[in-house]
Design goal:
The complex is a heterodimer of chains A (375) and B (558). With 375 residues, chain A is α/β, with parallel strands linked by helices. Chain A has 10 helices and 19 strands. Chain A starts with a strand and ends with a helix. Among the domains of chain B are: 109 residues, Rossmann fold; 63 residues, 2-Layer Sandwich (Dna Ligase, domain 1), CATH 3.30.1490. Classes of the chains: A alpha/beta (375), B alpha+beta (558). Chain B: GO terms for molecular function: ATP binding; carbamoyl-phosphate synthase (ammonia) activity; carbamoyl-phosphate synthase (glutamine-hydrolyzing) activity; metal ion binding.
Chain lengths: 375, 558
């Protein structure tokens, strides 16, 4: 167990202990996540590429790591910061410890940090760059390194997390006691643009008997339309949407094709740009599983899983785009729908994983929209 | 939609005398509820037979009756005060039972009084084992194999199907009074008879034993728009077989993955909807087979419960207050979070600490009572401790019990091994200390798990505390490093215990150890600013700030 330091670009630093990996140092944008369960899903969510994740819940690693809950085939976070991590895990599905999992994935994890102090600073000063070093590193050096880390908007993260070639997805959602089952019915063909898609999004689409063909992040609109899809899905993914100008252009062409389109998170943000609005950076983002979102059509409140640092600029949205969902904590946009095209999107994560399942119905809405358009 | 304007006067029923299974937490919830309703401009009539309560203070309700909690008295009060509604969900089982009786005797109809929070059908469905079981079947949730019987001969008919050991739960009793476990036919008949006698309707539930399964609780709230939120998850350190009121419980749940947590969340909401609790808080209890992950629903309380009081203090979310406001028509998104002010009450608290509750027993005053813990509640109180880690919280809780023990040591060195094992197998008030003693003697986590069925996660946490205690006792204050002392404080060792282990005085320890950090309970893990938080103490790691000409070191305190 070696001493470690987490430093932020504004000069604050925090001591802890390394609990994983031969990795000696790491850097990234420091964000905090308030989910109390689901660290395995968070670690493997491609949207966290480029980020150091600080968990607010204090005991992390208790139920180990299992073979079923990962959201991709590897860990994507740049670093992982917790208050406490146990030496023994307990859960009937667990196959290894959080420590060994991070080690295998070459990701630095530290514990013993006053995570609440970190959160209080991020809440007040906003998201910022940070550095974690193991060993005898002076605070001055650590802060200097934090400042030298490239800004997240300068990185092409989507290219790193997207799968390079076209693939099919047929696995359905996890159910106790059988686990995963394969899809047997295929009603409509859906082209998925994989900007770093989470597996549970694909599973929920597969549950609804949609035939999924996934395209890499740099697929052109023509390639996507060449399979003549009945619907198009724009996935979640990491980084600053403003940098993805090629993708935004392709999406504008896809909208013009009048195919049903559904976007989640980054997909939603890219649609915002495609509609002629823009996205702006939130002060400290939304990362957690307890965000109240109001469905403006039904008036009902959904508790949602969220993971985004950018939001749609409402003032720049054209008249023909209707806001369908808002976040009740800060009134930011959580969902929108185009009035003239069959296009809608959700900013938060209706697939949860981790988080509440209140918004699963949104996947039904996509299915119904495709069905409607087919008629 | 704002509050209801078709009702003016609301009758609130208190829970009566403090007894095992129903204590001061219902004064806490009733007081919160009365204040919340008054704040909304309703005329609040309160009845409680116990004058030693905050709720019966003159400024809490508009009119207070200190009268016996029996139907004829309630009828007289209703006749005189003519309330438009009764809120029966804040006064424990006593208030619910009275509400049922008032309804069944036609008194509510006669005076045109509405039950708000939970109506008659809801209370019946949740409380009547048979109706509850059918309701769970309708939504596809499993329960332990069980049968309701009204006589010994009926019991005989079903016992072969259920098998031994079998749990005997009398219907409609407080804190599980008259409940027991039978391991064989010999024990079975007298225990069934005792259960039948304890039940006001002469009825018991015989239930498949799932002793050793893990136990969880969820605190749910629902408003009239069907918005549902989970306030808190709770994991019992003591597995199934010990009444929840007598169990050591931990919040949030420690050993559930998100997949399992969300199953319980979905189940809890489904139970609330099926039972039909339209507004307010409920508590749903689950058991989990530790080997297969299968969940059973155990029961639900369609009211504010003992666990709700714990969940309120554990999260900062005032369940009883919000329940009262939901009962008069508000929705969760119309109410604000008291602590953050700016965010709504329609959210799920997230906590960045661990809460441990340990029941307090007083068998010294009841020498006749069997101190073995069963499905009948025996504790007379409880302590709740908050720490940044489980280790810190449990050690704080141990010394808060005021048993003259300042950690996991109680002087059991001379206890023989058979007794030691027996005290680990059979749940009892001192079990934690026997477990610690077993670890001192070299027992493994697996061995203790076999004896106690307590989850290995909890056991290993205790073992690590004991191992560190043994390590510390080989040191003295001059040979201990600063780092080692910091770790001891972060693991919840008291100054007093450290003084004993390190052969010095508390004053010496206090001089050398890091200073206390005060942390905040704010419902949101510091995501939003807190305006009316409350504090707990902890020992934090070092933080600092690099400034232009100097480096500042500090331990964050709020």
């Amino acid at each position: 167990m070696e001493k470690a330091i987490l430093a932020l670009e504004n000069g604050y630093f925090f001591y802890g202990w390394s609990f994983s990996s031969p990795v000696r140092e790491t850097g990234g944008e420091v964000i905090f996540n308030t989910s109390m369960t689901g660290y395995q899903e968070i670690l493997t969510d491609p949207s966290y590429k480029g980020q150091i994740v600080v968990m607010t819940a204090s005991e992390i690693g208790n139920y180990g790591i299992n073979e079923e809950d990962s959201q991709s085939d590897r860990v994507w976070v740049n670093g992982f910061v917790v208050k406490d991590v146990p030496n023994v895990y307990s859960n009937y599905r667990a196959v290894e410890s959080l420590k060994s999992y991070l080690e295998k994935n070459n990701v630095l994890g530290i514990f013993g940090v006053d995570t609440r102090a970190v959160v209080r600073i991020l809440r007040e000063k906003g998201v910022m760059k940070g550095y974690i070093g193991v060993g005898d590193i002076s605070p001055v050096e650590a802060v200097k390194k934090a400042r030298s880390i490239p800004d997240i908007s300068e990185l092409n993260l989507v290219a790193e997390v997207s799968k390079p070639s076209v693939y099919r997805w047929t696995q359905k959602s996890w159910k106790w006691p059988k686990g995963y089952e394969e899809q047997t019915e295929f009603h409509y063909k859906v082209a998925v643009l994989d900007y770093g898609v989470k597996r549970d999004i694909l599973r929920l689409l597969a549950d609804r008997n949609l035939e999924l063909i996934c395209f890499p992040y740099n697929a052109s609109a023509e390639e996507v339309l060449s399979i003549n899809p009945d619907g198009i899905f724009l996935s979640n993914g990491p980084g600053d949407p403003a940098t993805l100008t090629y993708q935004i252009k392709q999406i504008q062409k896809l909208i013009a094709s009048e195919k049903p389109i559904f976007g989640i998170c980054l997909g939603h943000q890219l649609l915002s740009w495609a509609f002629g609005s823009r996205t702006y950076k939130l002060e400290f983002g939304h990362h957690g599983g307890n965000h109240p979102v109001k469905n403006l059509k039904t008036g009902k409140v959904e508790i949602t899983a969220q993971n985004h640092n950018y939001a749609t600029d409402e003032t720049k949205l054209p008249q023909d785009v209707e806001i369908t969902h808002i976040n009740l904590n800060d009134n930011t946009i959580e969902g929108m729908r185009h009035k003239n095209y069959p296009v809608f999107s959700i900013q938060h994560h209706p697939e949860a994983a981790p988080g509440p399942h209140d918004s699963f119905y949104i996947f039904d809405e996509f299915y119904n929209l495709i069905k409607e358009c087919k008629k | 939609m704002p509050k209801r304007t078709d009702i003016e006067t609301i009758l609130l029923i208190g829970s009566g005398p403090i007894i095992i299974g129903q204590a001061a937490e219902f004064d806490y919830s009733g007081t919160q509820g009365a204040k919340a309703l008054k704040e909304e401009g309703y005329r609040v009539i309160l009845v409680n037979s116990n004058p030693a309560t905050i709720m019966t203070d003159p400024n809490i309700a508009d009119r207070t009756y200190i009268e016996p909690l029996i139907t004829p008295v309630l009828e007289k009060i209703i006749e005189k005060e003519r309330p438009d509604a009764i809120l029966p969900t804040l006064g424990g089982q006593t208030a619910l039972n009275l509400a049922i009786d008032l309804y069944e005797k036609g008194i509510l109809d006669k005076y045109n009084v509405e039950l708000i929070g939970a109506n008659y059908e809801v209370i019946k469905k949740a409380e009547d084992r048979d109706l509850f079981k059918k309701a769970m079947e309708r939504i596809g949730l499993s329960m332990p194999k069980s049968a309701v019987v009204k006589s010994i001969s009926e019991a005989e008919e079903v016992i072969d199907w259920i098998g031994f050991p079998v749990i005997i739960r009398p219907s409609f009793t407080l804190g599980g009074t008259g409940g027991s476990i039978a391991y064989n036919r010999e024990e079975f008949y007298p225990k069934v008879k005792a259960g039948l006698d304890a039940s006001p309707i002469h009825e018991v539930l015989l239930e498949e034993s799932i002793i050793g399964w893990k136990e969880f609780e969820m605190e749910v709230m629902r408003d009239k728009n069907d918005n549902c939120v989970i306030i808190c998850s709770i994991e019992n350190l003591d597995p199934m077989g010990v009444h929840t009121g007598d169990s050591i419980t931990v919040a949030p749940a420690m050993t559930l993955s998100d997949r399992e947590y969300q199953i319980l969340r979905n189940y809890s909401i489904a139970v609330m909807r099926e039972i039909g609790v339209e507004t307010g808080g409920s508590n749903v209890q689950f058991a989990q087979n530790p080997k297969t992950g299968e969940f059973y629903v155990i029961e639900m309380n369609p009211r504010v419960s003992r666990s709700s009081a714990l969940a309120s203090k554990a999260t900062g979310f005032p369940i009883a207050k919000i329940a009262a406001k939901l009962a008069v028509g508000y929705t969760l998104d119309e109410l604000s979070n008291d602590i953050t002010k700016k965010t709504p009450a329609s959210f799920e608290p997230t906590i960045d600490y661990v809460v441990v509750k340990i029941p307090r027993f007083d068998f010294a005053k009841f020498p006749e009572a069997d101190p073995t813990l069963t499905t009948m509640m025996k504790s007379v109180g409880e302590v709740m401790a908050i720490g940044r880690t489980f280790k810190e919280a449990i050690q704080k809780a141990l010394r808060s019990l005021e048993l003259g023990r300042y950690g996991f040591y109680m002087g059991l060195e001379n206890v023989d091994e058979n007794l030691l094992k027996e005290k680990i197998i059979k749940p009892n008030p001192d079990r934690l200390w026997y477990i610690a003693e077993a670890f001192r003697r070299g027992f493994s986590v697996e061995e203790i798990n076999k004896l106690s069925h307590i989850d290995i996660w909890f056991l290993n946490q205790i073992k690590e505390i004991v191992d560190y205690e043994l390590y510390l006792s080989t040191k003295d204050i001059s040979t201990l490093t600063e780092q080692e002392l910091e770790k001891a404080k972060q693991w919840g060792f008291s100054d007093r215990e450290l003084a004993r282990l390190l052969k010095t005085t508390e004053e010496e320890i206090r001089k050398k150890r890091p200073p206390v950090s005060f942390k905040v309970v704010d419902t949101c893990a510091a995501e939003f600013e807190a305006f009316t938080p409350y504090y707990y103490s902890s020992y934090e790691s070092l933080s600092g700030k690099v400034e232009e000409d100097k480096i500042i070191y500090y331990r964050d305190s709020e």
